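Regression test case RT-17, inverse folding.

Input:
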């Protein structure tokens, strides 16, 4: 069980490195309970929209919603995110993703240095 950051999904969808892609696929296959923040869904949709168009962005969004449990931002998560953002001076999206991992008490799959700097959560990478 893990919370996945946008950077993992960018590697999964766009990596030119076959080794990285195979590791990402294996990582996902082994995880039966995968979570993403609604912010990750937003970021992946936006990036896909820019790179591949609306149709692909919608398809990818639908797949993500089926494969991952999407965690919406509620009041508890918003406050936890603001606390992390203030303490570590990280971007809002990163603090929301980190707060999602913190509240769920799960590791975050990322290589993002902003998220990795947050001591309240564990991060893992391929």
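Golden output:
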């Amino acid at each position: 069980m893990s919370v996945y950051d946008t950077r993992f999904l960018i590697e999964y969808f766009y990596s030119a490195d076959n080794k990285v892609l195979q590791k990402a696929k294996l990582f996902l296959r082994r995880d039966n309970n995968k979570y993403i923040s609604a912010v990750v869904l937003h970021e992946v949709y936006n990036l896909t929209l820019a790179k591949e168009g609306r149709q692909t962005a919608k398809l990818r969004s639908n797949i993500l919603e089926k494969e991952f449990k999407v965690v919406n931002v509620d009041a508890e998560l918003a406050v936890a995110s603001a606390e992390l953002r203030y303490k570590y001076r990280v971007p809002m999206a990163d603090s929301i993703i980190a707060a999602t991992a913190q509240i769920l008490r799960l590791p975050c799959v990322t290589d993002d240095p902003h998220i990795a700097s947050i001591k309240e959560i564990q991060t893992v990478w391929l």
